[in-house]
Amino acid sequence: MAKDAKSAVEGAAERLQATGSAIADQGQQLGIKMLDQAEANTREAFNAMRAAAEAKDLGEVMRIQGDYLRDQGGRAMTQAREIGELIANFGRATIGGITGRD
User: Fold this and answer.
1) What are phi and psi of 86, to 5 degrees?
2) How far apart are CA 90 and CA 81, in angstroms?
3) What pLDDT is recorded for position 89?
4) What is the Cα–Cα distance from 42 to 36, expressed in whole angstroms?
5) Ramachandran region of residue 100, left (φ > 0), alpha (ψ -120 to 50) or beta?
6) Which of 36, 48, 56, 83 could covalently link to 68 via disulfide, CB atoms 3.0 to 4.6 Å apart?
7) What residues have CB less than 8 Å from 33, skipping those under 6 apart?
8) Which among 47, 39, 29 is positioned nearest to 83, based on CA atoms?
9) How confident is the model at residue 19 (pLDDT cuts 50, 70, 90)?
10) What is d(CA 90, CA 19) in angstroms, rounded to the nearest whole number?
11) For the segment 70-80, what is each residue's pLDDT rounded down to a tens digit?
């Protein structure tokens, strides 16, 4: 009986340690993904500003701004989906690691 309890506690401690490592890894992945997205958004914004600065007339500036806004909207949706998937995976891994059901 005591041996079974000790084994159960050791198993729980191992699962908790593994879950802690997984949480740290997934948190790092999430942070890197967010930095990558911020970098891409900044690069695209500067590309649009450069193009607008080189535009020959107001119509071209308006087209560049419209294209940028449309593209940024698509990027935002994709980026939100990517972050959402990372967070969902993070939650599933955390719950599975704690309960022992991966």
Assistant:
1) -65, -45
2) 14
3) 85
4) 10
5) left
6) 48
7) 82, 83, 86
8) 29
9) low
10) 10
11) 999 999 999 99
What is this structure's pTM? 0.70
Torsion-angle region of 57 (φ positive above 0: left; ψ -120 to 50: alpha; else: beta): beta
Return the structure tokens found at 40. 């891409």
Cβ–Cβ under 8 Å, residues 26 and 97: no
Q: Where would I find the H helices in the chain? A: 2-53, 58-99
Q: Which amino acid is at 13?
A: A
pLDDT at 102 over 60: no
Distance separating alpha carbons of residues 81 and 101, to the nearest angstrom: 25
